[in-house]
């Protein structure tokens, strides 16, 4: 059969094929293959690529009624902001943990409270997706390896399997901005493996004596004894000062493998959640910035993160073909993990419980933000002290008595003096605290 005749016959068959049932379509294909001598797969392809006379109308999407209205999502976003933008799985646990203070602060009706408690992590992700921008930035490593004492400090090659608190990982986070030249501030981070309890101290430079003094201060703030420290191979940790300090106190001192950041995965995660998300990537290199950062690290921030911020732990990884499914445990705060471990002194347990009941996480979050505003103003302060002082004094003069009285109760609760000013957008910024 000639090509022209085959095409005319195909057009005729196509019209019948479109209007036929599933059983009849098979018989039409058999007929087409017999007449035109087509392979069956080729015949199917030819029919499926025939130009259609009219386009099928798209099926209207099924509209589902919205379960969570604007009021629920507005309260959810406010809690997310106050909790420093946690992961949806952690945010769901935060809602349950902070519920007594949520009721007082937002005066939500019972139906809104019920919806907040029933919302799933996946729905939280969808609701907050437009808000999650500009949260991932690159970390710059500034570690120089220490060549001394490597033969005396063992390498930890196994995974952490601790049954009691006290075994920790340590690391430094640089605040050097875009340049590593000169002297600048580092944040020394120490995290407990079992509970996730984190304490931080800011130090000027990474001299061995300064790091040792910061570790001494941090060890006194932990609610339990430090039993072990695992660090990277930087010279700020691999030295005689720290080794002798650990030996005198009976602390197990180990190090990770060179160039293997995954060996210290716990502290690398806390570097982001407890330092970078608050301090950012600006340069801090003045004594005033050091004192202001330590004021936050030693007071409100550890209370906010350790008592009110739940975290999850990876239990296992299930591989399905080329994909991995990670299974996590129930979100818990570091305090709850300590209480459930059974290795914390009863008196200390009771003190921490009473402290959490007395504190308001929303007010605590406000104080943290006030102090962060003051810290951010001190970025690159060494090069512009006169401008910062002039700006601060001008803003202090603009304060009204009403603004000062607004935070009088908050200042008394935390034992600090705070002055604030309201911007045009309604946001409060910290100007001075003492």
Plain-language structure description:
49% of the residues lie in helices and 13% in strands. It is built from 19 helices and nine strands. The protein has helices at residues 3-19, 22-36, 40-48, 70-82, 88-97, 99-106, 110-118, 121-128, 208-221, 240-249, 265-279, 287-297, 300-308, 334-341, 346-358, 361-377, 385-397, 401-406, 408-414, and strands at 167-175, 185-192, 198-204, 228-231, 252-255, 314-320, 323-328, 418-422, 428-433. The protein is elongated. Helix 5 (88-97) packs across helix 8. The chain folds into four domains: 3-48; 70-131, no CATH class; 167-368, Nucleotidyltransferase, domain 5; 382-433, no CATH class. The longest helix has 17 residues, at 3-19. It is an alpha/beta fold and 434 residues long. The strands form three sheets. A five-stranded mixed β-sheet has the order 3-2-1-4-5, with helices on both faces. It has a two-stranded antiparallel sheet with strand order 6-7. A two-stranded antiparallel ribbon has the order 8-9.
């Amino acid at each position: 059969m000639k090509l022209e005749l085959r095409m005319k016959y195909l057009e005729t068959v196509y019209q019948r094929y479109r209007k036929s049932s599933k059983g009849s379509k098979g018989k039409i294909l058999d007929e087409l293959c017999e007449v035109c001598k087509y392979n069956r797969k080729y015949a199917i392809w030819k029919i499926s690529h025939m130009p259609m006379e009219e386009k099928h109308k798209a099926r209207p999407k099924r509209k589902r009624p919205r379960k969570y209205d604007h009021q629920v999502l507005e309260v959810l976003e406010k809690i997310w902001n106050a909790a420093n933008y946690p992961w949806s799985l952690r945010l769901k646990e935060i809602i349950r943990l902070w519920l007594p203070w949520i009721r007082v602060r937002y005066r939500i009706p019972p139906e809104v409270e019920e919806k907040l408690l029933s919302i799933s992590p996946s729905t939280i992700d969808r609701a907050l997706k437009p808000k999650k921008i500009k949260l991932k930035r690159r970390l710059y490593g500034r570690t120089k390896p220490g060549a001394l004492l490597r033969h005396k400090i063992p390498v930890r090659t196994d995974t952490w399997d601790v049954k009691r608190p006290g075994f920790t990982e340590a690391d430094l986070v640089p605040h050097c901005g875009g340049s590593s030249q000169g002297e600048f501030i580092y944040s020394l981070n120490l995290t407990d493996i079992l509970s996730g309890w984190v304490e931080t101290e800011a130090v000027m430079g990474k001299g061995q004596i300064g790091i040792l003094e910061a570790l001494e201060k941090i060890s006194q703030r932990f609610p339990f004894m430090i039993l072990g420290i695992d660090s990277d191979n930087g010279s700020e940790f691999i030295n005689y000062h720290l080794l002798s300090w650990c030996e005198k106190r009976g602390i197990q001192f180990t190090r990770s493998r060179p160039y293997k950041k995954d060996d210290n995965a716990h502290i690398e995660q806390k570097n982001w959640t407890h330092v970078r998300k608050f301090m950012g990537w600006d340069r801090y290199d003045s004594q005033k910035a050091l004192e202001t950062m330590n004021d936050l690290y030693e007071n409100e921030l550890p209370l906010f993160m350790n008592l009110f911020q739940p975290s999850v732990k990876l239990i296992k990884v299930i591989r399905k073909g080329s994909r991995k499914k990670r299974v996590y445990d129930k979100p818990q705060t570091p305090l709850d993990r300590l209480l459930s471990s059974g290795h914390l002194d009863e008196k200390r347990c009771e003190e921490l419980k009473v402290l959490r009941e007395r504190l308001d996480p929303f007010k605590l979050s406000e104080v943290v933000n006030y102090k962060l505003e003051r810290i951010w103003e001190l970025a690159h302060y060494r090069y512009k002290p006169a401008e910062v002082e002039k700006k601060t004094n001008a803003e202090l003069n603009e304060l009204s008595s009403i603004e000062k009285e607004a935070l009088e109760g908050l200042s008394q609760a935390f034992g600090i003096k705070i002055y604030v000013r309201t911007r045009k957008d309604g946001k409060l910024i910290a100007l001075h605290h003492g």
